[in-house]
């Protein structure tokens, strides 16, 4: 059944990510990596927008951001346009971490499709994207695109 296979693939993906990233000397979860990548690509976004970009629950994204801040990888700053809002920025340490962790993340991604030919891997990715796009609105945390209020540029989703 597709649901079971998707859950099983997710279990494998998380295990492989932790294995490769941990072996490279990093303490970062897949969600923390996605959040940090989105913050780097979209300086100044707020937590609610971040949650939508990485398809993560808005009520629990704060914990992810808390851990990134505690690790010195990101920071929260007061918004210049809304005193109640906090905007996110990547730190120099966060940028350095993303640069140095990239080979381990790439290795993990390649390991996930190691039993497939290149064409099969491309087909799998195409079909996964198609199924996810069709079911996105059914998720408790759908992936969203957004526009920055200040520049009206499209915010980039995480890697």
Task: Please tell me about this protein's structure.
This protein is 57% helix and 6% strand. It contains 6 helices and 2 strands; from the N terminus they run ααααββαα. It has helices at residues 2-23, 30-41, 47-53, 61-70, 92-112, 118-135; strands spanning 74-78, 86-90. Strand 1 and strand 2 form a beta hairpin. Helix 1 (2-23) crosses helix 5 and helix 2 (30-41) crosses helix 4. The protein is globular and about 50 Å long.
Distance between the termini: 27 Å
- What would you report as the Rg, rounded to the nearest angstrom? 17 Å
- Order of adjacent strands in the largest pleated sheet: 1-2
* Total count of helical runs of at least 4 residues: 6
Low-confidence stretches: 147-155
Approximately how much helix is present in the residues? 55-70%
**In this structure, how is the largest beta sheet organized?**
2 strands, antiparallel
Write the layout of secondary structure elements.
Elements: H1 2-23, H2 30-41, H3 47-53, H4 61-70, E1 74-78, E2 86-90, H5 92-112, H6 118-135
Q: Can you give keywords for this protein?
A:
159 residues; mainly alpha; two-stranded antiparallel sheet; 6 helices; 6% strand
Summary of the model, kept short:
This protein has 159 residues and is mostly helical.
